[in-house]
Specification:
- The complex is a heterodimer.
- By secondary structure, chain A is an alpha/beta fold.
- Chain A folds into 2 domains: 247 residues, P-loop containing nucleotide triphosphate hydrolases (Rossmann fold, 3-Layer(aba) Sandwich); 60 residues, Alpha-Beta Plaits.
- Chain A is 39% helix and 23% strand.
- The N and C termini of chain A lie far apart (61 Å).
- The N terminus of chain A is likely disordered.
- Chain B is mostly helical.
- Chain B is built from 14 helices and no strands.
- Classes of the chains: A alpha/beta, B mainly alpha.
- Chains A and B meet through helix 1, helix 2, helix 4, helix 5 and helix 6 of A and helix 1, helix 6 and helix 7 of B.
Chain lengths: 341, 332
C-alpha cells in the first residue's frame, strides 16, 4: 500500500521522493563557501535596554543549538535573523540577503516555529497549515495537498480536522513544526521544539529535526533550554548570556577538554591500582563515581598503565577519552557572565 | 506512523507574487466570518430594503412618463407639493431644495438629482445602519483574537509585511460591508436604467455609479479602520464591540443634543450647528453629509472639505495605532 502511494506521489510534478535531490535553493547555499548567516557587531536596544551587545556570528549548514538563560537575547536574535526587528547597529546577511533591507526575502527562506502557542483562532489544524503554505506563496490547492503531506510526516492524524484551540501541547508542537516546514524553506528555526513533549514524542521530534538536516540539507537553528537535546542532534552550539555571544563553536570542539584525559573502567581494586600508577609516575584522578582518570598530555594511554595493570592484577575493560560536559561549559560561561554582571 | 506517510518530501512548485499575500489573509478571514449564522442572515436582510427603495425608482419613472395625465388629474401644483412633502420627510431641507429646484424646471432633466436622492436614501437609511451593525459584528475579533492567540509571530514569520496584514484584515470586513452597500446601490441604479423609458438616461446619469462607489468608500474606509483600531486595542473582542457601538451611539446622541440646544437658544442656529464642526462628533452624521456631498445633494463645498480632512485624519490615526499595536508583540 505504501508503495502504491509513493508511486502516485512520485508522478506528481511538485513532489520529489525522499531519495531525490533537495531543491536548488536548499542545496546551493549550504555547499557554497559563504556562511548562511553572517552577523557582524549587531546591537539592539529596546528603549534604554541593550538586549543584543556586539553580536557576531557566522553560521554554517547543519544543526545549531542556541543556548542561554532567560533574557539572554535568544528570541531577539531570532527576530533579527528573521528581519522582524530593526537592529540598532551592525550589519549582516542571511543567505545572501541583507538584513536591513530584505526582510521579506529572508522570511521566504526561513521556516519559523515559535515557542509560544501561536495560532489563528477558529481554524482547524489542516486549515492552519494550509494558511501557512498560502502565506508563503503556495496556491490554495497545492497548499492543501502539501499540508496533508506534511501533517502525515509530523504524525498528526485525524486530529487535523479539529480546531487548533482544542489541541494538546504535543499536538500543537507538531502543528507548529508542520506550518514551519510546509513551504520547504532551506533554513528552519525551531524555538523550544521539545518543550512539553513526552519522551517518545520528544525523541520523534529530534529525529525529525535531524532528518531534515541530514537527509534534506536544511540548516536548522534550535533555541532551547534542554542541553540534552543540543548534545543529541546539534553540530554547532552558540551560548548567549546578557545579550552577548559567549561561545560559538562546533559541539565536538566544545566537548574537547583542555587536557585530553582518559577514563578507565577497570575490574579490580581501583585504590590499589591508582597507588601503583602514582608510584610508576602516572598522574591520575579518582572521580566521585570511583572511576579512574589518567591524565594524558597527548591523549594516548601510557605504556606504564598496561604494565601496572598486569602487576596489580587489574583488567582494563574500557578506555574512554574524557569530554567536557555541555552542562559544565554552560554553567561556566553563564556563571562567568553573571559574576561579571 | 500513518500508512500514507511518505516521509518529508521537498517541494519546488511555483510561488505566487509576494505582493498579493494580503488576499490570502482576506480570503481566510472571509471564510472564518462566513461561518457565523448571524452574518449570513444580515447579508441576506441587507438586500431586502433595496427592493423597497427600488419601488421609488418605479414610481418616479412612471410619473415622468405619465406626468401630463398626473398633472391633469391632480393639478401640477398639487402633485409637485406631494413630491416635495415626501422629499422633506426623508431628507434635510437643503437636499430637498436642490432636488425640488431641479424638478420645478423640468422633471426629465432632474432625473440625475432624483436618482441621487433615491440612492442616497438607500445609502443613509438602510446601508448606513447595516454598516454599523456589520462592522460592529465583524471587526472586533479580527485583530483582538490574533492578539489573544499570539498569532502575530505566525503571520510575520512568513513573507508578509504589516501592510499586507492590515490590508488583508481591511478587505475581510470591506468585502462584507461592500456587499451590503455598494452592490445593492449599483443594482438599484441598474434597476432604474431598466425601468427608464430610454437608454439615453445613461447620458444624464452616467456619473452615478462612480458617485455611489465613492460615497460607499467614504463610509467603509474610516468605519472599518476605526473598528480595526478598536479591535487592536484589546485582546477581548467584546470590549472592542462595546467600544464600537458606544462611539457611534454617544456621537449620534451627543450631536443631537447640540442641535437641540442650539434650537432652544435661538432662531436660525439649527442651520449653523448642522454645518459646524460639531457634526464631526457624530460619525453617522459626518459621513452622511460627505455621502450627500459626493452624490451632489450638498453644495457647501468648503464645509465638506473640512469634514473630509477630518475623516481622512481619523483614518490615518487609526492606521497609525493599528500599525503600532501589531508591531508591539513582535518588539516585546
Amino acid at each position: 500500500m505504501a508503495n502504491q502511494f509513493g508511486q502516485q506521489f512520485e508522478n506528481m510534478p511538485n513532489s520529489k521522493a525522499v531519495e531525490s535531490t533537495p531543491s536548488d535553493l536548499a542545496t546551493a547555499k549550504p555547499t557554497g563557501p559563504q556562511p548562511l548567516i553572517e552577523l557582524r557587531n549587531i546591537d539592539k536596544f529596546y528603549g534604554q535596554t541593550k538586549v543584543l551587545d556586539d553580536v557576531s556570528i557566522s553560521l554554517k549548514p547543519g544543526v545549531t543549538g542556541l543556548l542561554g538563560p532567560n533574557g539572554a537575547g535568544k528570541s531577539t536574535l531570532i527576530k533579527v535573523i528573521l528581519g522582524l526587528v530593526r537592529i540598532s547597529g551592525g550589519s549582516g546577511n542571511v543567505m545572501g540577503h541583507d538584513l536591513l533591507s530584505s526582510g521579506r526575502e529572508i522570511r521566504n527562506l526561513i521556516g519559523y516555529m515559535p515557542e509560544d502557542d501561536s495560532y489563528i483562532a477558529g481554524m482547524q489544524g489542516i486549515e492552519l497549515v494550509r494558511y501557512a503554505a498560502c502565506l508563503s506563496g503556495m496556491t490554495n490547492v497545492e497548499g492543501l495537498r502539501r499540508s496533508h503531506e506534511i501533517l502525515d510526516y509530523c504524525d498528526v492524524g485525524q486530529e487535523r480536522y479539529r480546531n487548533v484551540e482544542t489541541y494538546s501541547t504535543g499536538m500543537r508542537q507538531k502543528t507548529k513544526v508542520a506550518q514551519a516546514i510546509v513551504a520547504n524553506p532551506p533554513m528552519l528555526i525551531f524555538d523550544e521544539p521539545t518543550s512539553g513533549l513526552d519522551p517518545e514524542a520528544r525523541e520523534a521530534m529530534l529525529n525529525r529535526v535531524k532528518t531534515l538536516s541530514v537527509k534534506h540539507g536544511k540548516t536548522v537553528i534550535i533555541s532551547t533550554h534542554i542541553l540534552k537535546d543540543v548534545q543529541q542532534i546539534c553540530d554547532h552550539v552558540i551560548i548567549m548570556a546578557n545579550g552577548k555571544v559567549k561561545l560559538s563553536d562546533r559541539l565536538e570542539n566544545v566537548h574537547r577538554p583542555s587536557s585530553p584525559n582518559l577514563h578507565l573502567k577497570i575490574l579490580g581494586d581501583p585504590l590499589l591500582f591508582q597507588g601503583n600508577l602514582e608510584r610508576n609516575g602516572v598522574a591520575t584522578l579518582l572521580d566521585d563515581d570511583g572511576n579512574l582518570c589518567v591524565i594524558s598530555k597527548d591523549g594516548v594511554l601510557p605504556k606504564a598503565v598496561w604494565t601496572t595493570a598486569m602487576s596489580s592484577k587489574v583488567s582494563i575493560q574500557s578506555v574512554i577519552p574524557s569530554k567536557n560536559s555541555l552542562e559544565a561549559i554552560f554553567r561556566e560561561v553563564v556563571g562567568d557572565d553573571a559574576r561579571a554582571g | 506512523m500513518p500508512v500514507n506517510d511518505l516521509g518529508y518530501r521537498t517541494w519546488d512548485g511555483v510561488i505566487t507574487s509576494p505582493y498579493m499575500r494580503w488576499m490570502t489573509i482576506a480570503m481566510s478571514g472571509i471564510r472564518i466570518v462566513f461561518k457565523s449564522q448571524w452574518i449570513k442572515r444580515l447579508m441576506f436582510l441587507a438586500w431586502a430594503p433595496a427592493l423597497a427603495v427600488g419601488a421609488m425608482f418605479f414610481f418616479y419613472e412612471q410619473y415622468v412618463e405619465n406626468r401630463d395625465a398626473v398633472d391633469v388629474a391632480t393639478g401640477r401644483d398639487s402633485g409637485f407639493r406631494q413630491v416635495a412633502g415626501v422629499l422633506r420627510m426623508f431628507s434635510s431641507e437643503s437636499q430637498a431644495k436642490i432636488v425640488l429646484d431641479a424638478m420645478a424646471k423640468e422633471p426629465n432633466e432632474a432625473r440625475g438629482y432624483v436618482w441621487s436622492f433615491i440612492l442616497m436614501r438607500m445609502l443613509r437609511g438602510y446601508s448606513g445602519w447595516m454598516v454599523l451593525m456589520l462592522v460592529g459584528l465583524i471587526t472586533p475579533p479580527l485583530i483582538s483574537k490574533d492578539i489573544r492567540s499570539r498569532a502575530f509571530l505566525f503571520y510575520f514569520s512568513k513573507p508578509i509585511t504589516r501592510t499586507d496584514y492590515l490590508l488583508g484584515k481591511l478587505c475581510t470586513v470591506g468585502f462584507f460591508v461592500g456587499f451590503v452597500t455598494i452592490l445593492p446601490a449599483l443594482a438599484l441604479y441598474l434597476f432604474g436604467v431598466v425601468l427608464s423609458p430610454s437608454v439615453f438616461v445613461l447620458l444624464s446619469t452616467w456619473d452615478l455609479p462612480f458617485r455611489v462607489v465613492a460615497a460607499c468608500l467614504i463610509v467603509i474606509l474610516p468605519s472599518c479602520l476605526l473598528g480595526l483600531m478598536l479591535s487592536s486595542l484589546t485582546s477581548e473582542s467584546r470590549f472592542a464591540g462595546f467600544s464600537w457601538f458606544t462611539v457611534w451611539i454617544l456621537g449620534f446622541v451627543g450631536y443631537r443634543i447640540v442641535l437641540f440646544s442650539t434650537q432652544l437658544g435661538g432662531s436660525n442656529l439649527n442651520i449653523e450647528a448642522s454645518e459646524s464642526m460639531w457634526q464631526a462628533v457624530s460619525l453617522y452624521d459626518c459621513l452622511g453629509f460627505l455621502q450627500a456631498w459626493i452624490m451632489g445633494l450638498e453644495t457647501n463645498h468648503s464645509f465638506a472639505i473640512k469634514l473630509l480632512v477630518f475623516v481622512l485624519s481619523l483614518s490615518a490615526f487609526c492606521v497609525y495605532v493599528i500599525m503600532r499595536k501589531i508591531s508591539a508583540p513582535i518588539n516585546a
